[in-house]
Amino acid sequence: MTIKDKGISRRDFVRGTVTGVGVGVFAAAGFYSYSPWRNQLFPKIARKQADIGVCKSVKVTNISETSWFDNGLLISDIKKAGGLLVNQYSLNWPPFGDGQGLAKGSYEAGINKIKHLLPDRLDEAWALIEQNCVHTDNPGGFSCLVEIEDMEGEIHKILFDTGWSYKWMEESYKREGIDKMLANNEIEMLFVTHEHFDHFWGLPVTMKYNPNIPIMIPDTFYPEGKQYIKDSGHKGQLTEIGNGLNKIMPGVASFKFDVPIICRVFGEQDIFVNVKDLGLVSITGCCHQGIIKFAEAAYRELKYEKDTLYGLYGGLHISPFEDWDPKYDDLVISLGKYGFEKIGCNHCTGIVTAKKFIETGYPVVEGTARFRSKDKAYLGNGDTIEFRAPV
Asked: Which of 70, 109, 290, 348 has the fewest Cβ atoms nearer than 10 Å?
């Protein structure tokens, strides 16, 4: 792990803590919390240095980072349904509505209305969904295409999550050519980070174009989620991934975290890519485990080029609803500890967070705010980021 020297001395730190009230104190205290000085108080981490090999490059194309279009509406639904611990399958959100209204549904009742139409007749299925579900215009979805170039120059494509709304995800797939890639067997696997509605419920759109695609999921999916994979028309191999490190291909490994998540979801897996002559690139869906735990897992578990945590992409789950709290400033400060040299954030990172990263001087790759993404401060729908050492 490379920890960047920010050029702040102990004297500067002390002066910061006693100068001014509020921001100066908390900023300095936050810096100390994540500085090498604090690390002196803890035992040195034993690094396992697992060797996963290397690859030439990795490119990420953002298919859709817009999980939903109205924060207020989503929050209101969750609150009215009973709060953050309510089972997501009971919310009567698309596609599992049974016509009974918010928080009065079930997986079985909802899927029975559309199962006979999956995965090929999605337009008909969505028409029924609009009749039986609440707020059908709000869902979008999170999904990206990860392209790994191996040391021989061959490209391996991984579909990273599969979104939410059938209607929106089909539009997004066609916009980025994902439909044709799936149909032509160009995409080697579907990697599902976790069971949340916005990352997983758009599954029939993927199945429509390739029902035989191998799928990797965390082994903490609930019975409803596993049944949904079957009901969506999947005919290929399903692999359930347990805790810790799992090698996928040379230079690429997943890591699964046991972490409780809102709406009765448990467990998230993400991807690490070791890029030749650059360092490690970390790709996450939501990072519910937290950016610190994510980075520390990489440092603890893996051997990687130049011992550098080079790149980061995905949703970092700091302020997904733009509800900034001063305690989040510590997370912004902590990111600098790891020395990332290229950051592509979006989705549940929050626009406010992305702008704070930029203001702090972090190497954030900005986007184009196309296709209903809201701001250029992060990589939006249709944007790409590539991690490759210069020739």
From this structure: 70
Contact 156, 126 (CB under 8 A): no
**Yes or no: is domain 50-69+137-388 CATH 1.10.1040.50?**
no
Tokens of 216: 């990797």
At a CB cut-off of 8 Å and minimum separation 6, what does 170 contact? 122, 179, 205, 208
| pTM, rounded to two decimals | 0.90
pLDDT for 9 equals: 40
How far does Cα 9 stand from its chain's mean position? 36
| Residue located via tokens 């090929």 | 120
Most distant CA pair in the chain: distance in Å? 69
The amino acid at residue 3 is I
Cis omega (within 30 of 0) on the bond before 139? no
Q: What is the pLDDT of residues 188-207, one digit of tens each?
A: 999 999 999 999 999 999 99
Residues 6+ apart with CB under 8 A from 78: 84, 86, 91, 262, 263
Domain boundaries, the chain: 1-43, 50-69+137-388
Q: What distance in Å separates the CA atoms of residue 357 and residue 21, rounded to the nearest whole number?
A: 23
- Residues of the chain whose pLDDT is less than 50? 1-36
